[in-house]
């Protein structure tokens, strides 16, 4: 681990601190099957070179029908699959029900992540709905899954109970030789009070994923604390178990609406260090007037911080396919920069003897 004061905004340093697939495989019992699936995503599809750009689609269940109105084919599973088939993505992610129905529309060379849980959009008055299991890992594999996905809500009263459910998914998926993607979100009274997407809670959820044995963690772009007093008080309540947490306050900007580029990189770099042997991909980011500029800018921050990549949903499939393909190409080209490359050396990975 690097102390807060030693965090860097230099992309080369941050990438070098991260583990490659090779190092992850050799540090534990990753297994040939899981390694092969991850290799397909990180090196054979998408931007490659050990980076990941995934296309997720969990509308019509997680978010209801709202995003169907963004353009004439928005939130149409067939349109999303067409974008995935024609674009340059590492993988496409879909809930079990859609994967089971549409699996044969997805080109065979494009890895499929099947989410085995979810919750339905029932309005904001229902607090922190836990994700329900919608399919077994076995059913997901039958639906063509190259990897298994699930969501873990961290920080509420049901955290321990939900962790047991998620751990069973991890165990079963690994038994089938499938890597596991965890959508890691902070939810609950304390996260809500401090900021569920704050750096503290995003980092906590990332650390939970590393310790639960998942292979890839999907986390949000951490937002600055909107109320520093509440955020500081919340952090101080954890100091008995984590005495240097006040150091995190050094990563909070003076103005939450104007975070310097270098500080954003350091914040994400800190979060990445919570999972040194797990692939970390990031969604979201600070909102600006131009969605395209926003996606390019946040992608550069994510990659400079040493994270392995992005998972981009409605910013891709929420616009007409030809425009989305152009945007996909720009993001993939940025991620293909030599400074983000994770080099593999062993013949097991390179095929060179």
Describe the structure.
The protein is α/β, with parallel strands linked by helices and 353 residues long. The chain has a single domain, classed as Alpha-Beta Barrel (TIM Barrel), CATH 3.20.20. Helices cover 41% and strands 13% of the residues. It is built from 15 helices and 10 strands. The protein has helices spanning 11-17, 21-27, 32-44, 77-86, 96-102, 137-142, 159-175, 189-194, 199-212, 228-236, 261-272, 291-304, 314-317, 321-335, 347-350; strands at 52-56, 91-95, 112-115, 117-118, 132-133, 147-154, 180-186, 216-220, 279-283, 309-311. Strands 1-2-3-6-7-8-9-10 form an 8-stranded parallel β-barrel, surrounded by 6 helices. Strands 4-5 form a two-stranded antiparallel ribbon. Helix 12 (291-304) links the parallel strand 9 (279-283) and strand 10 (309-311). Helix 9 runs parallel beside helix 11 (261-272) and helix 12 runs parallel beside helix 14 (321-335). The longest helix has 17 residues, at 159-175. It starts with 10 loop residues before the first helix and ends with a helix. The relative contact order is 0.17. The model has no long low-confidence stretch (mean pLDDT 91).
Q: What percent of residues adopt helix (DSSP H or I)?
A: 40-55%
Task: Say what the CATH topology is.
Answer: TIM Barrel
Distance between the termini: 34 Å
CATH architecture type:
Alpha-Beta Barrel
Q: Tell me, what is the CATH class?
A: Alpha Beta
Q: Write down the domain tally.
A: 1
Mean pLDDT: 91
Q: Any low-confidence stretches, pLDDT <50, length ≥5?
A: none
Structural class by sheet pairing and helices: alpha/beta
């Amino acid at each position: 681990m690097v102390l807060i004061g030693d965090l860097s905004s230099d992309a080369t340093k941050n990438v070098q601190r991260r583990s490659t697939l090779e190092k992850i495989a050799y540090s534990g019992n990753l297994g040939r099957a899981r390694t092969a699936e991850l290799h397909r995503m990180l090196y054979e599809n998408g931007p490659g070179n050990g980076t990941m750009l995934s296309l997720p689609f969990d509308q019509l269940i997680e978010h209801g029908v709202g995003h169907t109105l963004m353009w004439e084919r928005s939130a149409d599973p067939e349109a999303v699959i067409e974008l995935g088939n024609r674009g340059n993505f590492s993988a496409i992610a879909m809930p079990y029900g859609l994967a089971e129905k549409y699996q044969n529309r997805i080109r065979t060379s494009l890895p499929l992540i099947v989410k085995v849980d979810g919750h339905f959009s029932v309005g904001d008055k229902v607090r922190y709905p836990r994700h329900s299991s919608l399919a077994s890992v076995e059913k997901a594999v039958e639906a063509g899954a190259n990897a298994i996905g699930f969501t873990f809500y961290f920080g509420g009263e049901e955290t321990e109970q939900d962790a047991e459910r998620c751990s069973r998914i991890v165990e079963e998926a690994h038994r089938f030789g499938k890597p596991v993607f965890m959508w890691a979100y902070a939810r609950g009274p304390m996260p809500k009070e401090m900021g569920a997407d704050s750096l503290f809670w995003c980092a906590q959820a990332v650390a939970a994923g590393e310790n639960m044995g998942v292979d890839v963690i999907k986390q949000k772009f951490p937002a600055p604390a909107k109320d520093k007093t509440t955020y500081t008080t919340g952090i101080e309540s954890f100091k008995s178990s984590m005495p240097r947490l006040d150091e995190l306050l050094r990563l909070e900007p003076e103005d939450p609406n104007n975070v310097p580029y270098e500080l954003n990189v350091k914040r994400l770099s800190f979060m990445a260090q919570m999972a040194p042997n797990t692939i970390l991909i990031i969604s979201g980011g600070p909102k600006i007037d131009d969605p395209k500029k926003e996606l390019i800018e946040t992608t550069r921050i994510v990659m400079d911080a040493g994270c392995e990549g992005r998972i981009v949903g409605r910013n891709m499939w929420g616009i007409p396919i030809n425009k989305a393909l152009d945007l996909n190409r720009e993001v993939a080209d940025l991620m293909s920069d030599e400074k983000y490359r994770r080099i593999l050396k062993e013949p097991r990975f390179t095929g060179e003897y």
